[in-house]
Amino acid sequence: MDQQAQLPDRVDVLVVGGGQAGLGTGYRLREAGIGFVIVDDRARTGDVWRTRWRSLVLFTPRRFAALPGLPLPRSTGYYPTREQLADYLERYAAAHALPVVHATRVTAITRDGDEFVAETSRGPVRARAVVIATGPFQYPRIPRVGAGLDTSVAQLHSSAYDCPDDLPHGRIAVVGGGNSAAQLAVELADSDPARRVTMVAPQKPWFIPERILGLTVYWPLKLLGILSSPAESRISRYIHSRGDGILGTEAKRAVRTGRLALRTSRVMDARARSLVLADGSTLEVDAVLWATGFRTHYPFVQVEGALTDYGAPLHEGGVSPVAGLYWIGLPWQSRLDSSILHGIAADSADLIPVLTRHVGRVPSPASDSMEP
To answer: Per DSSP, what are the bridge partners of residue 264?
Structure first.
């Protein structure tokens, strides 16, 4: 288990979030000789993955799921499980002696002159720069139409799902069109033949084969330069417009064999025990698993000019128009692979020159207090 660092009163760079984005940024800051501390609201490094559903397996291969400076061990499965990735993050923090302060929630970040003040559950911290590394997956998006369902219909968001026992038997709708929806729909369908599981996707799912000519699809994407394509490139815009691609064809096979039903229409309403779809049809349900993603919400960022009118991060390649404020771990932050662990290496490297110019290379006197 990684050691607990001490929270300083003042620091050059405060990194908010101790998941993969925060740890990868910490590695770069350590390389650059910049004083920093990472604060995370969870009790242990890697807990962000340990709390995901039990059977979760990454859709990115081991080679593309590592952070800079430490590959995943060969003992890890080709597609890492949640536990393997969680343990890897814990080893990563220890291997690079990253100062992570656990069980520390940031409640507000404000500006005070040329510095930032972060109010935390352990007291205030002043910083010359702040990197927000909490990612976009903090606040579940649950459609309001769910309120129209009868109270006897079980409802659960994918972030709270652990295993099939969490839902009753009978007619289950998995609402969503991404990788999580596909994985969970197949798991529920295979858990009990008496279950009738329907995946309700807003549009026809885009199934991407796991392998091309015997190689994981990620290798051709990397070798052709597609994986690192700038977010505003033509290929990235096309892929973005297609929506979430589902890696693998297991769900597609389940639909073909009749193990899983598929409806391609948006959920527009809910009445009693039925979902009302945009195509005018209805779907009778005993339970709904909402795999509908997360909403953008950063209530603790209370710095003028940091967020859009809708509360989303305002940035260009992770650099905020507010001097000294930065973002990491956002989908499409700067390139196509910004949304997966593989992209953190490049995105964090891009931020360091800007951070260095802002705070300078010489750590502040408080840096000594940040060692674990």
So the answer is: 201
Q: Look up the pTM and report it.
A: 0.89
pLDDT digits (tens, 9 = 90+) for 31-70: 999 999 999 999 999 999 999 999 999 988 999 999 999 9
315, 298 contact by CB (below 8 A) = no
pLDDT at residue 3 is higher than 60: no
Q: Which residue has the tokens 């693998």?
A: 248
Check the CA dihedral 232-354-12-109 and report its sign.
negative
If you search the block for the tokens 């990612």, which residue do you land on?
135
Q: Which CATH number fits domain 10-136+296-370: 3.50.50.60, 1.20.140.10, 3.40.630.30, 3.20.20.150?
A: 3.50.50.60
Indicate the CATH number for domain 142-209+248-290: 3.50.50.60
Q: How far apart are CA 158 and CA 181, in angstroms?
A: 8
Tracing tokens 């010359």 back to the chain, one arrives at 128
How high is the mean pLDDT of the chain? 91
